[in-house]
Amino acid sequence: YDPTILELIPQIITNNNLGELPTTKEIRKAIQKMQYKKSPGPNGILTEAFKSLNGDGYKNIRLDYSQKLER
Asked: How far apart are CA 6 and CA 54, in angstroms?
């Protein structure tokens, strides 16, 4: 066993923010990655509706999500 081999493994950044409220930028990025013409989730909202949001829409999603976390 050669312990120096571990130094050759690329390191990844640890995300210490798990469990925290996503930022509006993270929400926007996730929505942009959504594919068109897919079945809606449990909320019944189509991808096209999410993709038509503007800055205030992202803020409202974040606010709604934070309120659900408080329950």
From this structure: 46
For the chain, how many residues are written?
Answer: 71
| Cβ atoms < 10 Å from Cβ of 24 | 17
Round to whole Å and give the CA distance between 53 and 69. Answer: 22
Give the per-residue pLDDT at 9.
92
pTM of the predicted model as reported, rounded to 2 decimal places = 0.65
> Pick the residue with more confidence: 15 or 24?
24
Can you tell me the distance from the alpha carbon of 47 to that of 41, in angstroms, rounded to the nearest whole number? 9
Find all residues with CB under 8 Å of 51, minimum gap 6, and list them. Answer: 31, 32, 34, 36
